[in-house]
Input
Amino acid sequence: MKAQIPYIDLHTHRNYPVDAHAILSIKNVALNHSETITEADCSVGLHPWYINENTEHDLGLMVDALALSQVLAIGECGMDKNIATPIADQEPVFDQQIRLAQRYQKPLIIHCVRAFQEIVGCLKKANFSGAVVFHGYRKNWTLAQQLIDRGYYLSIGKHCLNGSQDELLQHISLEYLFLETDTDATADIATLYRYVAQLRSIELEELKQTLYQNYKNVFRK
Output
């Protein structure tokens, strides 16, 4: 019998069963927010919302975590201009995580709010050569094209179901796309897949196959 192609939930905060083969997920673990690593595949990062005086300690925890086989990526990490912490304080923490991702050859899962120029600048400054995924992307197709031209991936969440990302989803090369549930407990990854497949007028299995290949490319599976 032909093996079932799994759905990929690129970035989530929910606990899928570890042995769930129908869905492959990357659980977010914020090491600077008292979140812990389980047996599930995950990303580990210092979230810009929770930057504090313990950064060096938390970076040490990240180095320890990167030795674990279930830690597939660094993130979510990045910068956010909608919070009180100045960008000048967020940027050095992001830079250190980029360096770790480079050293340990891990992809980056990016949290970005109104800071695309700064984040791309940091990645360029570090000459980062690994995979980069902007999670929860909500901006326009014009910016999306600029990010894709740099080889970056975009991950789209439940907000696309209201039609706000139709232009992007109709034009993006599927080789740069992921879908995710993030923090939304009501989001169903299969529903997102069906929406995109219908919008693109392609079979669901074709979409699943392409995003599964993206997953294998990014996470070296």
Q: What stands out?
A: Residues 53 and 219 are 31 Å apart (CA to CA). The chain has one domain: 7-219. The mean pLDDT is 96.
